[in-house]
Design a protein that fits this description.
This protein has about 600 residues and is mainly alpha-helical. Helix content is about 55%, strand content about 5%. The two termini are about 45 Å apart.
């Protein structure tokens, strides 16, 4: 069993160089490997679509890895194998890296690459899965097409042989037979696809009929070449996470199917797939009413489900602005963009604040962000803070000490409404490549139909801010909207990933497909099975259980059982209140 955590038994008893038995601690200059780690990581890399690869160490010797070079493997005192530094587990997003490699003309026409402050932009696992699935469908189609051509050629050759042997009076009849059969082959695309899939499975198992061996291998080879497979004899789409890492020397076999050039091209194809296919498909989901986000958090979940990173939110907002019927969703996207840009600025802003003046600094920031009236200088309120600090120092040290709130610590007080919104516009352009057409709050609210109270609530949730529950007058012209006493608490915001029950998810998505096809009874059975699996995995109370119950309630109502639908929906409401909270978007939809 392999653990992923930061507290490792015995890690402090050794030097770092002695502890690490796998990976690199100096950005690839020194690389080591371990057979047990290769065995464990190879199992995980198969599911994560990570390609085992070889790099050169400082001696020029090849070292095999099944992860990024920067992953570090440490064997703890308890004998278990731990792995750290998983930031670069997945391949980099080359749309946000300045590289020597050129992107496709379509991507460059959209303004990429965009260089970000950090070099940690990576693709999501959901995108890699979607890309591999898309390439597999293309692979099967190519194989079916070449298989059709192969069969047509064989039948044409057989027909020609028949024509030579038959009498002259039967020549016309012989001419028509292959044409009719060829037309039937064109119409029977489903059967060809099934035949191609069976052929792929047969070849992957290594059992090929002798008469079809040469032809089948040629068909597979052509299909593999068409989709960029890293093997010539079977479909293999995996990614090298170190393929664009600077300073890493790779073992490259130029003539092999998995050459470094092909590995790089595969990563570039994946980011092109994200921009040109996934984002348009994401917008199409809303037009088809397959998804309906109600706020920024649910919009983020929908983006991640498609494998789209938040750094593409500006591109998504631009796409949504072109669809009149999705104006409400464009408003949500713009709100999320502004809030995230403001959060970036707020993080830097708070680093310059002393603890004693934190409440005053936060209230000043909120006034600059959300208030419409003229804001007085926050330095007026610092006199009382300095007096309090003096009294504390006198009691603590027995003598008078200077105030901790000095001139050097008052950079936050220089912030104004105009300067803040200039920073927000600049951050939106640099990070998301999105242009905000306004330079003040009132213009933004009017143009994009935002609500100030919604912005306040979402901002507090994002940065971990608790404020006094009262009615705030954002339009006051001669007094501040927020005061020092309104700031009650600041708490850490912890991000986490919920593990997904894959079998239950497959049942649920299949049930949704059946419902869209009009097969309500089959869809009901599939979603019921998904609910049973979720109960076994998560227990009785879980957000995904509530979603299944909501779907079952709708299906019961559609199928003519309103009493059963009402009973199930009541369970969904109670469960959502317990696990999500009363003000969560999912709970609102349950009502």
């Amino acid at each position: 069993m392999m653990q992923t955590q930061s507290i490792i038994p015995g890690i402090l008893e050794k030097e770092q160089e002695q502890s690490v038995v796998y990976g690199s601690i100096d950005f690839g200059k020194t690389v080591i490997t371990h057979p047990r780690y290769l065995e464990l990581l190879n199992k995980a890399s198969h599911h994560l679509k990570i390609l085992p690869h070889e790099v050169l160490n400082e001696k020029g010797e090849p070292v095999e890895l099944c992860s990024s070079v920067e992953c570090k493997g440490i064997i703890g005192n308890d004998g278990r194998h731990y792995i750290l530094d998983l930031l670069k587990t997945f391949p980099p997003d080359v749309n946000f890296l300045k590289l020597d490699e050129e992107l496709s003309p379509e991507i460059r026409a959209l303004g990429y690459p965009i260089e970000q402050k950090h070099k940690l932009s990576c693709l999501r696992q959901e995108l890699l899965d979607a890309f591999a699935d898309d390439r597999y469908v293309t692979f099967i189609k190519h194989a079916a097409f070449h298989l059709q051509q192969l069969n047509a050629a064989k039948k044409a050759a057989a027909a020609a042989e028949v024509k030579r042997e038959e009498a002259v009076e039967k020549t016309e009849e012989g001419d028509q037979v292959p044409k009719v059969e060829a037309n039937n082959n064109v119409k029977a695309e489903g059967s060809r696809m099934e035949e191609a899939v069976k052929m792929m499975e047969t070849i992957s198992e290594g059992v090929i009929p002798e008469k079809l061996a040469t032809d089948s291998r040629d068909v597979v080879k052509r299909a593999c070449g068409a989709v960029g497979s890293l093997k010539e004899t079977e479909f293999d789409i995996r990614f090298n996470p170190d393929v664009f890492s600077p300073g890493i020397r790779h073992v490259d076999n130029v003539d092999a199917a998995n050459s470094l050039r092909k590995q790089k091209q595969l990563v570039k194809d994946a980011v092109e797939f994200l921009v040109l296919k996934q984002i348009p498909a994401f917008v199409q989901d809303f037009l088809d009413h397959a998804s309906a986000p109600m706020d920024g958090s649910t919009l983020t979940e929908a983006l991640h489900a498609r494998g789209i990173n938040i750094r593409y939110l500006g591109r998504v907002a631009a796409k949504l602005s072109q669809v009149k019927s999705l104006e409400y969703l464009h408003t949500i996207a713009v709100s999320e963009l502004i809030l995230r840009a403001t959060k970036h600025i707020f993080t830097s802003y708070m680093q310059n604040c002393e603890m004693i003046s934190m409440a005053l600094a936060i209230s000043h920031f909120l006034n600059c962000f959300l208030a419409s009236g003229t804001i007085s200088s926050p330095l007026v309120g610092l006199d009382e803070l300095q007096k309090v600090q003096k009294r504390r120092n006198r009691r603590r040290n027995g003598k008078q000490a200077g105030p901790s709130v000095g001139v050097d610590n008052l950079e936050w007080a220089q912030l104004t409404q105009k300067s803040l919104w200039q920073q927000i516009r600049r951050e939106l352009k640099v990070y998301w490549d999105w242009d905000l057409a306004c330079d003040n709050l009132d213009a933004v609210v009017e143009m994009y139909k935002l609500q100030k109270i919604s912005l306040l609530r979402a901002f507090c949730v994002k940065v971990g801010l608790q404020i006094l529950l009262r009615e705030y007058n954002f339009d006051a012209r001669h007094r501040a909207t927020f005061h020092e006493d309104d700031i009650l608490n600041v708490f850490p915001v912890v991000k986490h990933i919920n593990p997904r029950a894959s079998d239950a998810y497959n049942f649920y998505t299949t049930g949704q497909s059946k419902i869209q096809q009009g097969c309500f009874k089959e869809g009901y059975e599939l979603i019921s099975e998904a609910l049973n699996l979720l109960n076994n995995v998560y227990g009785a109370l879980h957000p995904e259980n509530a979603q299944c119950l909501r779907m079952l309630a709708r299906l019961s109502y559609i199928m003519g059982d309103p009493q059963e639908a009402l009973t199930i929906q009541q369970r969904a409401v109670l469960m959502s209140e317990r696990v999500n909270g009363i003000d969560h978007p999912y709970t609102i939809s349950e009502y």
